[in-house]
Design brief:
The protein is an all-alpha fold. The chain has helices at residues 3-11, 13-19, 22-31, 37-44, 49-59, 67-78, 80-104, 110-113, 119-126, 133-140, 144-153, 158-173, 179-188, 193-201. It has 14 helices and no strands.
Length: 204
């Protein structure tokens, strides 16, 4: 189950448990092979309705990627108001995730993103990277032997090693060696977004 669906079930846990007629829901989930026979028997043996609801909600996240969708479908006919609540929470989660993604991506224009970075930009970037530089290079498509050669050719100068790897990347990939690809790899390596913006939005 996706993390956003786990959060939805946690946030609506008591509301759902109090209103569900669990016996209707579990039969559908059993039919859809989301629940096992043993769990079906276990939950049916619980005499208190709200406890049955809590048992089901606590168990669903462990039942694989189909569990949330199947649970939502089980509510659509018998509990349409609860189905709407799930849909509302899912939309809110998607909007939150989209907002986080936008915030994590530096605001660089498409024109710059589609261009090939200049040697000056790469030199400036090289002076700010640390141990994460190798992860960036591998993500960009360089191989371990490439990185080894860059290190051996500039044994005691980290900035020169990094710049040599960037120049090799540009030479090997040509027009495909874009700022877009580079910033994606930098973000994956947890590079400071402010640094990325400073280097690629400035007039060089």
């Amino acid at each position: 189950m996706e993390e956003k669906h786990r959060r939805i079930l946690r946030s609506l846990r008591l509301e759902l448990a109090e209103q569900l007629r669990v016996e209707l829901v579990v039969q559908f989930l059993y039919q859809e092979r989301v629940l096992s026979q043993s769990f079906l028997e276990e939950i049916q043996a619980e005499p208190v309705s709200i406890r049955r609801g809590l048992m089901l909600l606590d168990h669903l996240p462990s039942r694989g990627p189909r569990a949330f969708a199947a649970f939502a479908l089980s509510l659509r006919e018998e509990f349409p108001w609860l189905h709407r609540r799930l849909e509302e929470e899912e939309r809110a989660e998607e909007e939150r995730e989209a907002g986080e993604e936008d915030e994590s991506r530096p605001p660089i224009s498409d024109h710059i993103l589609n261009s090939v970075p200049t040697d000056k930009q790469l030199n400036q970037l090289s002076s700010h990277l640390g141990p994460e530089w190798e992860r960036v290079m591998v993500d960009l498509g360089l191989k371990e032997p490439d990185l080894y050669r860059c290190k051996m050719n500039h044994l005691h100068n980290l900035q020169a090693q990094i710049l040599a790897a960037f120049i090799l990347w540009k030479k090997r990939f040509g027009k495909q060696a874009t700022v877009q690809h580079l910033t994606n790899s930098l973000i994956l390596a947890d590079t400071d977004p402010g640094l990325i913006v400073k280097i690629f939005q400035d007039d060089h």
